[in-house]
Amino acid sequence: MGTDTACVLEPGVLPAAVGLDDDGVADEMLLAVRESRRWAARQAELIAEADRRGLARRQGFGSTCEWLAVLSGEPVPACRSKVAVAEALERMPETRAAFAAGEVSEGKVRLLAEAQALAPEQFARDEASLVAAVAGASPQQVPQVVASWKRQADPQGTEVQAERLYKQRALHLSKGWLDMLRLSGQLDPESGLIVQDAIRSLSEGAALNASDTRTPAQCRADALVEICRRHLQGGNGSVRPPRVLVTIPWNTLQEGQGLVDTETGPVTAETARRITCDATISRVLLDADSVPVEMGRATRVIPPALRKALDLRDGGCTHPGCDVPARWSDAHHIQHWAQGGKTDLSNLRLLCRKHHRDAHHQQSYPLRQ
What's the pTM value of the predicted model, to 2 decimals? Predict the structure, then answer.
């Protein structure tokens, strides 16, 4: 195992994987991994050269990242990461050589780049030994290797490094290929602990029950949305619907069929109906070119006094067994107002976000007894 022979992978030249024995599959896999690393290093070299020449702007692109996205067909977040690695490698000769030789993965290179940015002088001094240690470490061991180096490189600079980490915090939001909002970024340790604990409080342990069929990743995603939703509702006990602007054709809202375009991608008509269960509604007239020509007066579907009465009556989510309090629950029209349902207590019930979604997208649940 472990052949180190370089080759060009051309279609039709290599034997089919199905015809290889076990050792052959392992050998070919190792070769493919090393070659993919070499090509990734070559990409980084070309990206750095294009950036140095200002090639992107000369060809009419706004940035090297935009140029790479168009050239490679990859999404912008992936290209942003590649450009950052390419820029960092210009200051990391030992890492660049190991990357080009296929000895370290792109993920390890990114971690080394973060270490270089934290302590450039110490990194330049220790780069060779640190790269060797990282190259031989397992993916689970690499963060500990780099953290240990940081402490040894600058034992007196803990506070300075913490401030540098804080300055490197970032969060990127971008619309993905499949009409999903993509989140990527990093937080300093202190901020990370806060976010991690907040998400865990709604996605692990006592927050879940045995009948919950969501994956852990789905639970974390739902927890993040719920935290943001509670913030938008205000922390003083008052309920204020989130400020989300959605333009919905009247027939779509009334019939509950079709899709509605939003800033982050299309949502179903049923999702739109759920959003408008308790929202500020404005009538907008459009001309033949979809240009607004008249906007009617905004009206709130559920006035504050009625919402208070609903909170007092239901006390929280009315789904059996759910204990989400009233301040974190939606006011749900049993018969949607777009279909003639009245906005009064007899046609309203409180539902938490999960059960409100279920009520619109699946089936109605019995009231809590």
Answer: 0.43
